[in-house]
Specification:
Helix content: 25-40%
Number of helices: 65
Structural class: alpha+beta
Radius of gyration: 53 Å
Strand order of the largest sheet: 26-25-24-23-29-28-27
Number of strands: 43
Strand content: 5-15%
Largest sheet: 7 strands, antiparallel
Distance between the termini: 110 Å
Shape: elongated
Amino acid sequence: MARLADYFLVVGYDLDKRVEGEGQGRILQRFPEKDWEDSPFPQGIELFCQPSGWQLVPERQPASFFVAVLTDINSERHYCACFTFWEGLDNPQLQKADASELDEVDEDLAVVQAAKVFAPKSLVLVSRLDYTEVFRNCLGLVYTIHVDGLSAPLETVIGNLLTCVIPIAGGSQTDESPVCSLEKVPQALACDWLLACLQPGQEEREERLRTITLGAGDRQVIQTPINDALPVSGSTVAQLFRQLGIVNVLYLLCAALTEHKILFLSNSYQRLTDACRGLLAIMFPLKYSFTYVPILPGKLIEVLSTPTPFIIGVNSFFRSETQELLDVIVADLDGGTVTIPECVHISLLPEPLLQQTQTVLAMILDPELEIADRAFPPLSSQPSALKIQDKEIRAVFLWLFARLFQGYRWCLHIIRIHPEPVIRFHKAAFLGQRSLTEDDFLMKVLDGMAFAGFVSERGPPYRATDLFDELVANEVERIRQEETCPHKVMNHVKELAEQLFKNENPYPAVAMHKVQPPTENRQNAATDKTPFPGLDDVAVQLFIDHATAKLKNVPPVVKVEVKAMVPSGPPLGDIVDRNGNVMANSARRLEVVRNCITYIFENKMLEAKKLMPAVLRALKGRAARVCLTQELNQHVLQNRAVLDDQQFDYIVRMLNCTLQDCSHMDEHGIAAALLPLVTAFCRKLGAGITQFAYSCVQEHMVWATMQFWEAMFYSDVQSHIRALYLESEDGEQQKNLEQQDGSGDGREISALDLASEQNRLWPTLSKEMQMERVQKEESTVFSQAIHYANRMSYLLLPLDTSKNRLLRNTGFGDVESVSNSYVTNSIAGSMAESYDTESGFEDAESSDVANSVVRFINRFVDKVCNESGVTNEHLKALHTMIPDIVQMHIETLDAVHRESKRLPPIQKPKLLRPILLPGEELVMEGMRVHLIPDGREEATGMMGGPPLLPAEGAIFLTTYRLIFKGTPTDPLVGEQVITRSFPIASLTKEKRISVTIPMDQFVQEGLQLRSCTFQLMKIAFDEEVASDLAEVFRKHMHKLRYPQHVQGTFAFTVGQSGKMVVEHKTKDKNQSLKTLSKNLVKSAKRTIGRQYVTRKKYSPPTWENRSSFQSELDEDEISVSEELEPQSSLTLSSTIRSSDRQTMSNVVERACCRDYQRLGLGTLSNSLTRSKNEPFRISTVNRMYTVCRSYPGLLIVPQSIPDTTIQRICRCYRQNRFPVVCWRNSRTKAVLLRSAGFHAKGVVGFFKSPNTPSAAPSQAESTSLEQEKYLQAIISSMPSYSENSGRNTLSGFTSTHMSTSDSSDKLRPPKIGALMKQVMGTKEDVPGTFSRGGKWGSIRGSGRLSTYNPDVGTRLAGKEGPQSNGGPSEALFLRQQKAYLYIIGDKAQLKGGKQDSFQQWEVVPIEVCDVRQVKNSFKKLMKACVPSSQTSDPNMSFLRCLEDSEWMTLLHRVLQVSVLVVELLDTGSSVMVSLEDGWDVTTQVVSLVQLLSDPYYRTFDGFRLLVEKEWLSFGHKFSQRGAQTLGSQSSGFTPVFLQFLDCVHQIHLQFPMEFEFSQYYLKFLAYHYVSNRFRTFLLDSDYERIELGVLYEEKGGERRSPQVCKSVWDYIDRLNKKTPVFFNYMFCPEDDEVLRPYTFISNLKVWDFYMEETLSEGPSYDWEARVRQERVAEETPEKPDTSGPKSQRHIVWPCYDGLSKVVPDAITKLLQDLQSLEAELGQTSEKWKDTWDKIKTTQRAESKLESKPSFSSSLLMSSNLSHQRRSQGVYLQESAGSSINLAMDCEASATSTPVAGRPSTSTLYSQFQSTESENRSFEGILFKKGALLKPWKPRWFVLDKTKHQLRYYESRQDKECKGMIELAEVESVIPGTPTMGAPKNIDEKAFFDIKTTKRVYNFCAQDSPNAQLWMDSVQSCLSDA
C-alpha cells in the first residue's frame, strides 16, 4: 500500500526577496510539517512551481496545472503536481514610492505600472505515485472549494488527501478496517474508499476498492495497474509519435539507450512531462538511470552542460540558451523536429530490425498508407483511439526488445546463490551467438547502465514475472517465424497491446470522476477579494496523526508477490547465423578437420600433412573451430595428453591458427574451450621435464584481455556451484523440478533453474543450514580464484622469461586495447614494457615480467572476489599466494626452455642443389627461403591447376645466376620441383619487403628481385637465416651485378679457378709516365691478341677477400683517353703501317668485310689496292679508330672522297659518326647510309645554299661544302642519277602509287607518300588520316586503327597545301625531281633548316623516341607482364598496364620508319638515317631495313652477320645500355636491342615462311644479350673489344676449356647441329622478297618471351643445365610402382612444364623418334639437318611428279611449291604443334578458318607482290581499253579465285602486277561492242564488258569462244562467291 500524497504545500510569491523584477517563491504552508521517515521532503520545490521564474503580471492568467518530477538522493522519483492560480495585490513598487515619498518617481514607471498586479500562487502535491489525472482533480477540488466557497472545510479535504492510502498495484486482497472515521470531525465519511470488511459481490467490492472521496461530495475512481512493473503511459507515447514522427522518435530511443544527451523543448510544461514519460515508457524493459528532469527551471539551465547523459525538458522560452550546446540532441515538440549535432553519432538498431519496426509503426500510426494506392480502398481505416494506439506502439517496442534480447538468460552466469543471488552477464557470448559482434548499437546497449540495471533486476531466477519475461520465454519462436510478415506481426502487436491496456485500465467501465470545476464568474470575482486562506495546521495534523495511529494498529499488509521460476526461453544456439558464411559450416570441412586430428593421433603424419593446409583454411570458419575444440577434447585422458614432437607441433599449429582469428572478446567461446586443452597437451622433453602446449600459444590478444578471464572465471564458478547443489540434492527434487518445468524429458537442469529452486527453499532452511551453504559457495569461489591465478600465470609468462622481447606496446596498462599483431613471444613481454616505460626503467629483467604478471593477476582477483563476495581473509591469502605461484612457474619454465632449445628443429624440406653450367660456381651456399607468389596468377592455382607457389627451398647465388630451387608448400604438389632463376647481370631492381607467410611461421624480412629477363623473385628468408647473412647475400649480389670493370663479368671470369685474388694497383700520379705507357701500348698493339690476355689475366678474388676488390681495375694501362692529341695519332699511324699486318688481316676477316664483298660495295685485295671503277671503296681511315672511336676499322665511303675530307666531315656529326654506306639494293642500286645526327652548329650551315655570297668562307661553311660534296658523291654513285630524264615528280610519284592502290586494298600498308606523312606527322595534317589513329607525330599519339584513306593530300612535310584551284603550289612546282637521297633526321635537330629546292636530297624530319622513353616504357612493360602483387584494381589490369607502358607504340614507330625506308630504297632513292647519336634508333632502323629488304639476313648466317655488323661493329653501347658495370649503374637498363628483337619477332609472326630461324632463336638472343654468359654483347665498340683483346681471340684457337663458349654465335651453331630447336621448319623463302609488314598497333602482338615461365626447370636458354637435368633424372631409378598400371597421359601445366619439350611439334617429334629408333638399332644417328634436307629433296621430286598436292607433300614446305600451297594454312607454332591446320582443298583454303588467335596465312600473304606461283584459276591475253583517251593494249590477265580478283600484267613474265579488278565489286559481265581504237580484224563477239561499282571495263579476246570462256569463268567466280 502507498500514500496517494506525501506532502501538500502552498507556495506563494515572496514580496520581500525581490531582486530587480526577478521574484522568488516561498513555501507559505506545508503539511505535514514533519518529514515522513520513508520519504524525505524534496528541496527546491518553489523553483519548480514557476519554472520560468516568479513574476508579477498586470493581467490575471488562467489557472494552470502540470506535473514536475524531482529525483532524490536515493534516486527515487517524486511527482510534484503544481496547480497555479493568480491573486491580485497592490503594486508593490507604487507602494514603495508612496512610502518614501520621493519626488523623483520615474514617470515612465508610473505610466506602465498598473495599480493592481497579480501574483502567482501554487498548490502542490508531492507523491511517489504518478496519477496525473487524480492529482489534477484533487487540487482542482481544493481550488474550487476556495473560489466557490463551498461548505466543506479545506482542512478536512487536505487531511483526507494526505491520509488516503491506495494499493500500488494489482488490487490487493487484504482486508482493512476503515482508517479515517474520526467521529469528532463532522464529515465522518472522510475517506470513503476504505476496503470494506464486508464482502459483498466481487464486482461491487472491486469498484469500491478504487473509489476515493475527499469529503466534499466528490468521488474518484483510481485504477491501479495490475502489474506495476509495466509503465503506465496513458496516451503519452501516441502523443510523442504524433509530435515528432516515427524516425525521430526512433532516433531519440536509440540515443537514450546509447547514453546520449536529450533535450525536449516545448511551450507547454505538461507536454514536456508527457513526452519524457512516453520516451521512458517505450524503453521498457530497460529503465533510464541517468539525470531525468522533465521540467527544468530556467534558473538551473546550466545543468545542461553536465557531462553525463540526461533527458531534460525546457520551456521553448529558453531556446536561445540551448543553442551553443554541442553534444545535445534537441527535440522540439512544437515544431516536430529533432536536431542531431554534427559531432554526435547515433548508432541505430541493427537491420533488419530497424526496417521492420518502422513498417509496423507506420501501419499503426497511418493505416491509410498501405491502401493509399488501391483502386477500391476499404471504407474505414482510421487509426485506433489514442489510448489504444498508445498501447499498440508500446507493444511494438516490447516485441522489438524481445527480439533484441532473446536468449539473454542463457548468457547469465550465476556466481552465488546464497545469501543473495549474484549474477553476471556474458556479453561476448551473447553477441557471438547472435553473430552481432560488429553491431555498434547492441554493443553500446549491453555496455550501458540501463542494461546493467536490467540484468540485476531480471537476472535473479526466482522472482515475479511480467509480460516481457513471458514474451522472451514463450513467444520467441512465433516472433521469428512472423518477423518478415508485417500483418502477422501486427496481429501479435494487437494482442500485446490488449494486455498492456488491460494492465493500465483493469476496469474501463468504472472510470468515474465526480469533481466540480469552479464556476466561471466566481473564478474571476471572488479571488479578487479573498486571498487563499491560511489553513489550520493543527486540524490537518490531527487528521494525519489519527490515520497513522489507526494504521499502526492494523496488522502489516503483506502483499504476497507471486514469485516463480523465471523461464529461460529457447537457447541461443538455435538462432540461425544469418550473416554467417554458409560455406563456413559445410560438413565436408568439418570432416576434414576431424580426419586430420584422427591422423595426428594415429601417428599417420604424412596423411595429416596433406590435409593440414585445408584444415588451416577451414579453421577460418567458426563451426570448424568449435569442431576442433570438441575433437581435441576427446583425446584428453585424465587431464593429460602426451604427444611426440611432430604431433605436438601439428596440434600447436592448429591451436594457433584457431586462436589467431578469435577476437579479443572471444565471442564464440573458442579460446575458453581451448584453455583447458592448452594445459593438457604436452610433450616430454627430458627426464621429468614436460612442455605444455600453452607455452606455444601465448601470442594471442585474447589472453591479455581482462573481460575474457572474468567471463571464463564466472562460467567455471557457475558450473562448480551447480555441481555443488546437484550432488547435495536427492533425486526427488530433480523430479519435482522437471514437473514444474513441464518437460519430463530429463533435460539437463541449468544453473539458473537450480538457483531458482534454492531461492525458493531458502526461507524454509534453518540458520545453520543457511550458514553452511553460504560457506560452501564462498570456498568454491575461492578455490576457483586460486586455480585461475595458476592458469593466468601459465598463459602470461613467456617461455623465455630472461629474454623479454619487447616488440609490442599493447600492454596490460590498457587491458581493453585490441591488437592483431602476433609478434611478441608472449603478452607479458609487452606488459613488462608498458610498466617499464611508465616507471622510467629501460632494462627489462625477468623480475619485471614476473611483477607485471603478478599485478595483472592481482587486479583480476580483486575484481572477481569483490563481486562474488569472497571474505577478506581469503582475499589476503590470495594476494600472498600469487607471487609464489608466478615464481614457481618461472622456475619450471626455465627448465623447459633449456630443454626445448636442445630439440632438433622441425624437419624442413631437404634443400635441393641446382645444376650448374660448366664454369659456373657457387658464391654462396643455399639459404632457406620461401618463394612468395607475385602478381602472376598461373602458378598460385587461382586459374585452375595446382598451387605451385608459395614454395619452400633455397636461393643460390652463383657467379652467373641467381637460382631458387625448392618444392611447393602445398603437400598435394609436394613432389614437383620448382626452379626460378635469372642471370645475375639481368637484375634491374632489388627492394626489401616484409612478408607474412600464412603457413607455419611469421617471416619478417624478404627481398623482391626483378630481372630484365622478365622474371621476378619474391623471397622471404626463413627464420633460420640470420639477418646479417641476408645482408651478406645482398652485398655479394650487388658486387656480382655491377662489377668494377667489364672483365669482372661472368663471360670473362668463367672457367677460371675461384681464387679471385687481385693485386691492387695504385692510381698513377705521374702524368708523363702515363702518356709513355699509352704510346708503348699502342705501338705494341700487334701483340694485343694473345699476350695481353695471358699477361693481365683477370682472376677475381675469393669471396673472403672480396671486400678488398674495390679499385680492381680503376686505372687500366690500356685505357686510352677520349681526345687523342693530333701528334700522337700521327706517330700511331706510322708505327702501325710499318709493323702491323696481322691486325689488318684480322680486320679484313671481320664479318662486315665479307658482307661488303657480297653486296659488291668494294673489295679489299691483299695488296690493299682497289679497282677504280667501283662507285664505293673500303676506307681504312679509321683503322686505328682515330676518326671515330665507335665505328669499325673499315668503312665504305664514296670512291671520290679522299680520307682527309672524311676527317674534316666527321666533326659535323655527333660523336664523329659521319655517314657511311652499310647496304646497297641489288636491283635499284640505291644505298642505305647511317650516321649520327648533325651537330647543332653544323645544321644551319649545311642547309645554306652553296651560292650564298660570303666575303671570307668561315670554317663552318667550308665544312658544310665538304659535307655537300660528300652527299653529292653518294648521289652520283647511283645509276639512276645519270638517267634522270623521265622521272615523275615526287608528288606525282606518290599519287600514282595511290591510285594503283585500289580502295579494295585498304589493309595494304600505305605507300610512300602516306608513309612519309605518317612518319613525319606534320602540324597541318588532319589528325588520324593515315596512321591508323593518331599520327606518328608524337609518340603518345594513340595507335588505334582508322582506315587508311589513300586520296588525302600528298604534300610532304613542310610544304604549303595545294592551292584552291587544285594546281600544285609554287614550292611543289619548283621541286619537280624526286629526291635521290632522303635524309631521315630528327625533327628537333632540324629546326630552322631551310630546304633548298635545287639540291637532290631531301630531309624527312621525324620524331624519335629517346632513350629515356624506352627505359621508362620498358619498366612499365615489366610491371605489366610480371606484376609484383595481385590487384583487383581495374586500372591495373594487364591490358591497361600494357597500354600505359606504350611499348607497342614504340615498336610501331620503329617499324613504321623502317617500312618507309624500305619503300624509298625499293623505288630507287638512297636513304641516310641520321638520328640521335647514331647508335640506338639508327641501328634499329638500319638493321630492320636490311632484314626486310634482303632475304640473306633472314638466314642464320645473315642474321648473325647483320647483328655483328650493325650492332657490334658500329658501336651500339651494349655495356652502357645494359648497365653492365658499376660505372653505368646510374644510367639504368635500356633495352634498345631487345626492342629490335621484338620488331623482328613481329615481322616473323607476319611472315613465318621467310625466316630460317625460329622464334626461339630470337628469345635465346633476347635472354643472352643481357645474361653476360657470352662475351659477344659485352663492351661498347670494336675499339674497346680490341683494347681488351676480345675481338680476335675467338679466331685464335686457344680456348681453355672446350665447354666454355665465348661467342654466342659459336654456341648457337654448335647447338643447332645437335637439335633443331632454332630451326624454322616453315622456312620457304621467295627470291628477292621485300617484306612490308603491317605496323599498326592492332597488328602487333605481345611477345610471349615477356610472359612465359617454366617453373619445372627455369628459363630454357641455358641448355647444358637442361641436358644435365635430364641426365640426372634418367640416372635416378624409378621406384617400382605397385599401384597398378600407370596412365600414359601426362598433365601439362602451362607455367610449369616447358611446352616445346613436353609437347613438341610434329616434325620435332618425328625427328626425335627417328633418333631414338636409330639408337635402339645401334646405328650411328644421322644429324637432324641431313635428315631434313633429304626429306625436302625427295619432297621436291614428288611434287614435280604429282600434279595434285598430296597430304605428305603439303606437310613439309619446299621452296618450289606453288604459292597456292603457301596459303593453305600450314602454320606450325614454334612452341607447340597443337595448331597444325592443313586445309587441303585450294578453294576451301581461302575460307578455311585460320588458327585461333593467329592471323590466317591468307591474310599473312595478302600483301605479297604476286609472282608466278600465284593462285591462277584461268589466265590468258586480253585487250583492255585504257582510261579516257588511252589506247587498247594487250595485257596478260589472271583470274584468281582464291583472292577473288582479276589481275593484269604487262606480259606473262612480268612479276609486277599493273592493276586489278576486285570481283567483289563486279556487278555484271555482258557482251560488248568494239569502240574507237579497238584492235582490228577481230570478231565483234570477242568483245565483252565488265561493269563494277566504279566504272565499266571494256575487254576484247582473240576470238569469240575465248571471250565466252572468259565471261563464263568470271561469272562462275561471281556465283561461287
